[in-house]
Amino acid sequence: MSDIANTPPPPYYAVIFTNLRTELDDGYGETAARMVQLAEQQPGFLGVESARDTVGITVSYWKDLDSIKQWKANVEHIEAQKLGRKKWYAAFTTRIAKVEREYSL
Amino acid sequence: MSDIANTPPPPYYAVIFTNLRTELDDGYGETAARMVQLAEQQPGFLGVESARDTVGITVSYWKDLDSIKQWKANVEHIEAQKLGRKKWYAAFTTRIAKVEREYSL
After folding, report:
1. Predicted ipTM?
2. Do A57 and B59 touch (CB under 8 A)?
3. Mutation test of the interface with chain A: which of B55, B58, B81, choosing the one with the most A Cβ atoms within 10 A?
């Protein structure tokens, strides 16, 4: 799905989206890919990481809270969020977190 | 691997560990499982979520920075971290983040 995001030195923000899927596909893959493409075009977008086993975890990184707010209010994203709640996700938790420290190998 | 973590109301902390594995197994699965078991016994541990595709993402949740510091300094965990750097991970990034908001479906 994705690589390790190459983020700048902290502070910046992370949106941790953890979810359980329903069994319904119905355009899920296309919409998920489109949302990544769309997020990448947003101001303040810094990167995204994604993996799925039992749960799916997508972490997107953002310059500040305002960038996240704008992304959440994007019209096409709002439509996808509605479909997600209605069709694709059995459960999810979204957490907004301020990254304070980072270290890498 | 895991379910959606049932965390308390924010604020609390997240450790986002994103990694690429080497091709070497050599006890990786056992150590990874043992580290989850050990983390669960630590003071301040709130939950963990984990998934792997191309990248592995493990997010563990903690009461405060001090709990994270203690977990990082756990003797058995330090040993596992050394083996991780030497054998199991081709690359990783660890991010310490303060969860400010959370919402769920």
Report:
1. 0.95
2. yes
3. B55
Which chain B residue shows the shortest CA-CA distance from A7? B93
Q: Which residues pair with B103 in a beta bridge?
A: A94
Question: What is the domain partition of chain A in residue ranges?
Answer: 12-99
Task: Tell me the fold of A12-99.
Answer: Alpha-Beta Plaits (3.30.70)
Q: Taking the model in full, what pTM does it have?
A: 0.95
Residues in chain B, pLDDT under 50: none
Phi, psi of B69 (to 5 degrees): -60, -45
User: What digits encode the pLDDT tens for the residues B77-95?
Assistant: 999 999 999 999 999 999 9
Say which residues have a Cβ less than 8 Å from residue B92's Cβ, sequence separation at least 6. Answer: A4, A104, A105, B17, B18, B19, B20, B84
CA of A65 vs chain B CAs: smallest distance (Å)? 11
**What Å distances lie between residue B3 and A50, A93, A101, A105, CA to CA?**
16, 11, 26, 27
Q: Does the pLDDT of residue A2 top 80, yes or no?
A: no
Instruction: Name the B residues in 2-31 with CB < 8 Å from any A CB.
Output: 2-5, 7, 10, 14, 16, 18-20
